[in-house]
Amino acid sequence: MQKNLEIYLDNLLNWLQTNFLTPNAITQWVCILFGVVLVFSLGLVIGPMFRRWVKASVSNEFLRSLFSVTASVTHSLTFFLYSQICISFFVMKDDFPRWIIAASDLSIAWVAIRLSTYIIPNRAISRLVAFCVWGLALLHIVGLLGYITSYLQTMSLSMGGNTISVYGMIKGLILAAICLQLARVISTFTAKRIETSHTLSPSLQVLINKLINIGLYTAALLFTLSSIGLDLTSLTIFSSALGVGVGFGLRTIFANYISGILLLLDKSIKPGDVIELVGVFGTVRYMHARYASVLTRSGKEYLIPNEKLITNEVINWSYSNTNVRLVIPVGVSYASDIHQVKKIMEDATKGIKRILRTPPPLARLSGFGDSSVDMELCVWIADAEDGVGNVTSEVLFNIWDLFKENDIEIPFPQRDLHIKSGSLG
């Protein structure tokens, strides 16, 4: 046992002398240490200055987070550039800078991990990506990555007229994840920029965002397929047959998607409109690919499929004009002076800020009921998205108070019973 231990220690010492204690290796470690100290010192000076500049000059939240991530990888990028310069000098001397190359690979791996953490919001997936990146960097440093890559390339499977290796499939999955995440980040950034534009209407903003999303994700998919060596033309027949099957299975989803695009093109319904549909009255907040979000005054948010907005009858209170007329019915006693009632009802709208003065409020006689003279008060408002029932309630409160002050009676249904004498005999 002791003899085996001595052999292991001798082998370890020989390995250290061969790899770490040679003049070439010691020179490399000195270069690496000097680079780390240099980069760290520059970071202490430049880092706070850069953060102060970002805080003072950049107001966009997305750009701020992007700059912060860039600042966090500046050390690694600077060390990578420094290591490349050192590698060039060693190559000019016909030396192989093994440890500087390893340090350079680790710096790039750290950059990849930081960027993937920023792009991927899910912590579990970002940790998995970090583990894979560190593993690839370690395999590359010890020289096993090339052998594993060659072995995976020999393993393949046929799909139609295409032959795809296991290595190509793994590379395709990685590229797909990266491209889709980049498409998501770019889509989020452009959406925020478009939403802040005052020259585009809300419907046009949503339409442009949808077209950008379609273009980005389609480009990401095509780039991934072509990068793994897949001939896209050979997939035409397969994709046609698959499209027919998927079309039947996902008919409703596609109908909602196309309906959403049509609604945005004809501008019949757009974000900010006040609509009424099948007992739902509220403001359109968002228009997504499959549904529209309608927020009611009670706080309920209805997710209405776009197809229903196309096929059903929809009342758009703010389609061509935001002005909305409210008709408030009021009944008074037959003993009342209806001319005085008309004036009182119109006066009841004074002091209510949401009621427009043009067109002016107008009270009118609508009919003669069984128990009351039926009057109507017509008022106009320009902000139906803030509710209509609250305006009606405020007007009715004022009418009640004014009727009480002027002794005007609001009747209720009643019947008089007349009994003739002798009818029971």
Automatic annotation (TrEMBL):
Domain Mechanosensitive ion channel MscS C-terminal: 327-410
Family assignment from sequence similarity: Belongs to the MscS (TC 1.A.23) family.
Keywords: Cell membrane, Membrane, Transmembrane, Transmembrane helix
Transmembrane segments: 26-46, 66-90, 96-116, 128-152, 164-186, 207-230, 242-265
Chief place of localization: membrane
PANTHER family (alphabetical): MECHANOSENSITIVE CHANNEL MSCK, POTASSIUM CHANNEL RELATED
Domain Mechanosensitive ion channel MscS per the UniProt entry, residue ranges: 252-318
Membrane disposition: Multi-pass membrane protein
Compartment annotation: Cell membrane
SUPFAM superfamilies assigned: Mechanosensitive channel protein MscS (YggB), C-terminal domain (SSF82689), Mechanosensitive channel protein MscS (YggB), transmembrane region (SSF82861), Sm-like ribonucleoproteins (SSF50182)
InterPro entries: LSM_dom_sf, MS_channel_C, MscS-like_channel, MscS_beta-dom_sf, MscS_channel_2nd, MscS_channel_C_sf, MscS_channel_TM-2
Name of this protein: Mechanosensitive ion channel protein
